[in-house]
Write a structure and sequence with these properties.
Helix content: 40-55%
Strand order of the largest sheet: 3-2-1-6-5-4
Mean pLDDT: 85
Structural class: alpha+beta
Number of strands: 6
Distance between the termini: 50 Å
Radius of gyration: 22 Å
Order of helices and strands: HHHHHHEEHEHHHHHEEEH
């Protein structure tokens, strides 16, 4: 985890220009992109040796004040700052538990019959989905056998790659969520194995993982090119159950009265006539 902390801090200071931090450059040619370590230390009000130890993961029990000062200098947003705290002060190890989706949450999925919806857990695992979500992602009313991981689908599945029109955006979003999960669960061997597998099999994943972006999945819009339903413009939203920080309900919503709404109805009815 100290390696992840150092890489994250280096990637964040590389994007801060000295002039944006209020530092004079006098036209000098700099050998590093962004801020130097000593400049971050100066602006954050800590000693250079202490900041060096922080980047090396050897600073011990880092205070909230120091992390807040470093985050301010590096221009971290709330999600990035929470990720920095997790890397600098790893959360306690959690006991391994099987994934459980509450029966009421499964009923919510079924009640959203006209809306593709699924529950995503740790490591971007899709732990439950409704019929229309299965039709959207697999073109069949139920998922194929086996566990289903959203990151594997995005980076290793050809259908998913062509399904999302802006695949690069979807890929970046997926990697950013995985980075956030890694910070929250630094001892997760299954997550480490997933990252290793994707790094070996996907050059795109290696490229994006190296950028150390972190982002909380919240809301946005995706345009999908479905082989049967055609173009689908879907607004997605995420709802987190109050008793589980590791699961999130994701819905894909069509604009009322839109062609996308009609296309989703067609997709559901087309498969219903073939069952």
């Amino acid at each position: 985890m100290s390696k992840d902390l150092g890489e994250f801090l280096r990637s964040r200071r590389a994007r801060v220009r000295p002039e944006d931090a209020g530092l004079p450059t006098y036209g000098e040619r700099r050998r590093v992109a962004g801020l130097r370590r000593e400049e971050v230390a100066l602006l954050a009000g800590v000693s250079v040796p202490y900041y060096v130890r922080l980047e090396q993961g050897r600073a011990g029990n880092v205070s909230d004040e120091v992390l807040a000062a470093v985050g301010r200098v590096l221009g971290l947003d709330a999600t990035e700052h929470a990720h920095l705290r997790n890397l600098a002060r790893p959360p306690g190890r959690r006991a391994a538990e099987g994934v459980r989706v509450r029966p009421t949450l499964r009923r919510v999925l079924d009640a959203l019959g006209d809306t593709p919806a699924f529950v995503m857990g740790r490591r971007t695992e899709m732990v439950a989905c409704n019929r229309l979500a299965a039709l959207l992602f697999w073109n069949q009313p139920t998922p194929p056998p086996g566990p289903h991981n959203c990151a594997r689908l995005v980076f290793l599945d050809g259908h998913t790659r062509t399904l999302f029109r802006d695949w690069e955006h979807k890929a970046r979003e997926t990697v950013s969520f995985l980075r956030l999960d890694a910070g929250r669960h630094p001892d997760d061997r299954e997550l480490a194995a997933l990252v290793g597998e994707l790094s070996v099999k996907s050059a795109d994943f290696r490229r994006l993982w190296a950028e150390h972006e972190v982002r909380e999945r919240a809301a946005g819009r995706n345009v999908l090119d479905h082989p049967l339903a055609g173009e689908l413009v879907l607004d997605y939203d995420s709802l987190r159950p109050g008793d589980d920080d590791d699961q999130v309900l994701i819905t894909y919503l069509a604009e009322p009265g839109s062609r996308t709404e009609e296309a989703l109805r067609f997709l559901a009815s087309w498969h219903a006539t073939r069952v």
